[in-house]
Amino acid sequence: MTNFSELDRFLKNNRQNQLDELFELLRIPSLSADPSFGDSLQKAADFLSQKFESMGLKTQQLGTNGPPLVYAETPPVSDGPVVLVYGHYDVQPPDPLDLWQSPPFAPEVRGGKIYARGATDDKGQMMTHVLALEAVLNTSQKLPLQIKFLIEGQEESGSEVLEAELPKLGDQLACDVLVISDSSQYSKGQPAITYGLRGIAYFELHVQGPSADLHSGVFGGAVVNPAFALCNMITAMKNADGRIQLPGFYDSVVDLEPSERRAWQSLNFDEKSFASQIGVESTHGETGYSTLERRWGRPSFDVHGLTSGYQGEGGKTVLPAKASAKISFRLVPNQSPEKVAEQLREFVSQNTPAGVKAKIVDLHGGLGVVVDPNSKYMKAAMQAVEDGFGKTPVMIREGGSIPIVAQMVQLLKCDAILLGWGLDDDGAHSPNEKFALEDFYRGIKSSSRLWHYLAAP
Ligand code: BES
Ligand code: ZN
Prior knowledge:
Oligomer: single chain
Strand content: 15-25%
Helix content: 25-40%
Bound molecules: ligand BES, zinc ion
Low-confidence stretches: none
Distance between the termini: 13 Å
């Protein structure tokens, strides 16, 4: 039985330093969606490189044509396993800015919560592993395994650099188990281990009508309005039962196993509090499936942005020349984003009325993933989570996507453990993103023990 008291003492005494370090990273506006933030992405990468170097890890920045991958490793340990920790230092755009109570890149603690863009997704969660390792290296205990870190700067916008580098990195990244903290607990007070993520296929759909905006009195009623054409097409993509209407869309969808449905049933999901937490009166989705099933185990289709015509104050009687939408499909394992792109093209070509032209732009995509919930390392992970959070975790899948995970698991032939320290209401991608201080510290504690448990699974 390992004695963790020295480690726990170090963690307790260093809480302020740990928070200061996270704050430093949170101050960097490292959004990957907008190329003009390249310098900030580099700054965030440099922050991490310096941190790893200060901890004595062999550190490198890898990749070209975009924000670098930060790679760092501890020395190999003979007869110990190799763990690869993946995370991301990029964040989503903070818009709409006027809804933030404090500026997104000026982190502050209010009511026991850290507020900043990236607080939970993923700077706060990712840093728990860095800071936990730092703690272990500062005690007299020997690190019983080799830890490799791979922290990228484009997770929120398609992982292009990592996707290009990955095939060359098979040997360098070789590992027994991949550890990722970029998801959530099941609920407040109920930690979870995630064994599945959905994939995604993201597009822009552009509809072009007349060559210029027209007077709607002179021309209205006589030509197709591109905004209508776009909206009709979008509406037709889902039927009244919430089934996606792209041709062949469900062909490769594997039905949920009755045993998995039963296991999720026993999680006693609280429908009412879920709805009230997000400010809606009722939930909605594909007929025949529960809310958890719809979120974790079924595909979905969403519109993220719609643009057409006049958006300013007051009225303008314009018949817009064009309309566009940002849309995506969440996919379950076995569905491929490339296939979905073909199906969308077919659907759009069949549903574009004469008088307008439609164009589809592929933004990015990624496969869903389900890993073995009973893998060799899962018990060790459960023990680590229980030590940190004081409660046995439940096994869940999640609806969000970490597009590169499926490729990494496939290439590295490794197990994967997703340890989400966040909460669904942390406001990831939304204004006032937060991460509870207690979850930050519990995550660090869990991670600090994880290494020991993984070494003797
Ligand atoms: N951390 C999330 C993924 C996530 C969210 C996993 C919630 C589990 C639960 C990640 O940073 C993310 O948001 N990914 C994007 C990927 C997309 C932009 C390609 C997503 O899911 O929208
Ligand atoms: Zn994330």
